[in-house]
Amino acid sequence: MKRIFLSGYAALFFASLAYAQEGTPAPPPMEPQGPQRTGPWKSSPPAQEVVPVPVPIAPPKPNGPVQKSLVRITATSVDPDYKAPWNAGSLQRGVGAGFVINGNRIMTNAHVVANNRYITVERDGDPNKYPAQVQFIANDCDLALVTVPAKDFFKNMVPLKFGGIPALESTVSAYGYPIGGERMSVTTGIVSRVDFQLYTHSSVDQHLAIQISAQINPGNSGGPVMQDGKVVGVAFQGYSGDVAQGVAYMIPTPVMNRFLKDISNGQYDEYPDLAITYAKLQNPAQRKYLGLVDDDRGVLVSSVVAAGPSDGILKSGDVLLSIDGHPIASDSNVELDGERAQFEEVVERKFKGDSVKLDILRDKQPMTVTIKLFKPWPYSIQGHTYDVRPRYVLYGGLLFQPLSLDMLEAYRTSDLRLRHFFEYFILEQIYLVHPDVIVLSNILPDPINSYLTPYKGAIVDEVNGKKIRTLDELSQAFAQAPERLVIRMIGDGPPLVLDRNKVETARERIKTRYNVLKEQNLEERPASRIAAAGEKN
Amino acid sequence: MLVAVSGALARKEPAIPTTAARPKQVALVRVNVTGQGYDYFRPWQKKAPFSKRALGAVLPKGRVLVTADLVTNQNYVELERAESGEKTAANVRVIDYEANLALLEPAEKSFLDGITPLEITSDTVVGDRLAAWQLEPTGALLATEGLVTTVQMMPYPIDVGQFLTYRVSIPMQYRENSYTVPLVKNNKLAGLLLRYDSRSQLLDAIPAPVITHFLREADSQNYRGFPSAGFSFFPTRDPALRQFAGEKGKRGVYITNVEAGTPATRAGLKVGDIVTAVGNHDIDENGNYTDPLYGKIEFTNLLTAHAYAGDVVPFHLERDGKPMQLNLTLEHRDTKNYVSPPYNLDEPPRYYVLGGMIFQELSRQYLKEWGPNWQREAPQRLVYMDHFQSELFPDRNRRVVILSQVLPANSTIGYDDLAYLTVKTVNGKEIKSLDDLAEAVKQPVAGFIKIETEEDPKQIELDASQVAAEAPALQENYGISSLQRLQ
After folding, report:
1. Contact A393, A403 (CB under 8 A)
2. In whole angstroms, what is the distance from residue A298 CA to residue A28 CA?
3. Are B419 and B406 within 8 A, CB to CB?
4. Are B256 and A497 inside 8 Å of each other by CB?
5. What is the value of pTM for the model shown?
6. Best interface-test mutation with A: which of B455, B460, B466, B467 has the largest number of A CBs within 10 A?
7. Domain A1-42+56-266 has CATH 3.40.930.10
8. pLDDT digits (tens, 9 = 90+) for B82-104
9. Which listed CATH number (1.10.3720.10, 3.40.50.150, 2.30.42.10, 3.40.50.1370) goes with B231-329?
10. Which end of chain B lies in a sparser environment, N or C, as judged by fewer CB atoms within 10 Å?
11. CATH class label, B340-485
12. pLDDT by residue (tens digit) across B207-255?
């Protein structure tokens, strides 16, 4: 399920979440986001008071020799520099945990190994550091599988088995390598809540997560959370002590199992999504208007994303009554395996290419529709991306970049128009006209662009009368430029006028002066080119 | 922004006269104001009363000049003689929120007798010394001297265009009545304090030319306000832009936007025109003309302090490389000619309550309810619509009706979290104002009131008879004096 930016019904819920993350001076949930923060590499430890470990309700049952399953992962990563995208980026090193599962594989968080260049793994009672490789990484659910090529590494290691969703108030133990020492650490706590949460690694995906009261800190990331000798979750995010105390989250086993099943065909296909927004149907007058009986069932479809699988099948105003036979309550919950969960959980457990069956009410008439699921591309700009090089075009010292969360955060812009285009990229279907929202993000000063500073932050609309939809089109427009280039920006501003010959003369000068290794990168993150080609899947 | 004052600027005559030259009665009165603003979050009521104590400059014809923000939303204004403490009620005769000026008249005509009124001097230039006049608690004059460092066009608190402003470097002292502080040169009024930053010790003042403009129009029976032309422009410093627009010289501004229904549109000004002169004044590539007093200053000064609504101003321009002349008949742009009005003061907000749903019209006054950082803290979608209103609503002849909040009630159960939604239609009728909405809700369809919103959830339905039946209880419960105000 995707986070919808500030839309209708969801607005208050997300606003409150956003305040907790951004509005308060405190850092976002536990900041395990970059591996650089996951361990004692942090230059100064967070100023948190030492508090007694909460007394568990029931004494935990022993989980066995977890040391035989736990590994310490050290990852060196390179985070791309969105302000100078031709550079390699900044080097980071972080520590996280992982645990051995069947098939000689190590499971950990995606954020421990994202953007990595080199990984080593250590195990208890062995002085060696073993080079390791990422086999699969799922940035949308913050899980990854790592393997160690060294022979015999997995000998004597004990693969852990997965449990189910632990009961509320039951005791769990978290294992990892958090701040405070070098060796394995164990903390215990109880299961506080089972709910959908935003996964901050991508910042756009929401899945089931379990809140636990065990202290988890940077370095716990990727470590197993155990109960009765089985893994019931992977510790991955939480709030830092100055926002909320004792609020930590783990990825539950349904998400872990789904990941393992997804990769069983040799590649990770990511979560599919219905790509709709909906409203609860709790108002009696509205229910009566829609022709619903008084049975507390149904949610109202508000918007259908044109680039998603429901386009042409569902429409605004439809009432969803049941999903794969599970009745949907008016507060959007279904009952799954005896637990109440948001109805999207049914979709969450499916894979690309699977279908979902919906019973709906349209204009008071019951209907059944089947939707073949896939992941709609436009969401990708609203989340963090990893292991990709930023796309850009540099022309005449003007840096053009497609709008994305990573780019916005790099520039820390408060520009109203950019923020609007970002937040409403999907809901206002901006992506249909501008699959890439191309921003003149930066200017490398040179005599040919001395007067162009006021254009910084503007969004490209047309070049010489031709609408520019993607970065590739912009690159082509520059490559085939006539003598004079007239770039129209969105809004009331004046056109930006460039003399091709002057730009050509300045090219080498700018490249040398600013050490620009490459003037453009169009290759990575081809999501928008898929759209431009008119394909949906 | 600050222009350094070179040593070559000789110190002119002191702004503070010697004791012997001081007038016997300082031409200042105290002004005591109590008022109440309107509460845009509970639009049927007013906020808690405030009181302000300030100064007013005594002008000829028995009038007192103050800043508009002092007497905005006032309930009662009182004048007080500085030395005797004698008081009288006063009326606000003319107020201009955009220029931040107001004229008061005492109820008792004789109240100002014995005070020699201030004359106005408009010849202040950079390098002059001005004295800020305040009063000690005893009524004695407290004068502080400062140096005029800059004269330029700057935005005023009500941000509609820019006005001429003096910037003065001055170490002001705090006094309880420092609201309206006159700036005086040779015992003549040169300006009025607009804002003061105590850290940088910089004071911005409403200059005499703006005050004179205000007073001159106030003398006529029909106060219209400062004119506006209705276009936006961009300097042509960039030679490539000049060349593109066909301008062969090195002058003029590029017209980037011409708003519908404004003097600029009526005169035929077009996007892409290069305006090279206004009246007899040539405009350079930075958008400045050469003022006889100030030197280079932005040409919009010619359209504000130097011009009146109704004036015909010749614009010389280049269109596609050919010279042209257009005559703009300037007019004041009233707040009702905006989609989202920049201010609504001294008048209650419009609203409509429907079964716990509060509908209002988008305005900057509403957004300012989020406090000094409203641009960051108010709902961003609404800030976006206000900011880009001329681009988003080029036809201008509408308001944006928003569902601002929902008071929980039986008819709105399940809708409690809805807020800041823009209304598209009600019962199938397009909504371009609260009046449209009030009319449309009277015609329910099959007993339902159906509201379509631009944002999710897209549709909201209410039971018309339940809404009507519940109205008295809702009013009682939330203390809503009236369920609507459309005046």
Report:
1. no
2. 34
3. yes
4. no
5. 0.88
6. B455
7. no
8. 888 899 999 999 999 999 999 99
9. 2.30.42.10
10. C
11. alpha beta
12. 999 999 999 999 988 899 999 999 999 999 999 999 999 888 889 999 9
